[in-house]
Amino acid sequence: MKELECRNWYMRVVMEYDQKILPCSMTASLVKFFMKSAITTLFGEISSAFPLDILKFDEESKEVIIRVPKDNYAKVRAALTLCSATMLEGAIIPIIYTVEQASSCLISLDGPQKQLA
What we know:
Layout: E1 8-16, H1 28-43, E2 53-58, E3 63-69, H2 73-82, E4 85-88, E5 91-94, E6 96-103
Antiparallel strand pairs: 1-3, 1-6, 2-3, 4-5
Helix pairs in contact: 1-2
């Protein structure tokens, strides 16, 4: 039986930021800009050129589901984990990313989550 090769990794990420500091409301395209900025800061322009797709963004819960190529998963996770702020229109915007789940299968992100005590 042939095994399916996964080409992408999916991550459920929760963002912590203060909406009052932002010059506009947070949107999926702004989330993508902030995430790409975090990758660029840590790894440079070339590393941030790979695809990063925002599959879902919930402004109320500040939860994001992203898709990245499997070869770039470690870089994205490292950049999001280490990022504490980004620049927007000359202002420093504090943003903290918490990767809650990661999987090579999108549907597994919908399953039960383990809660740490």
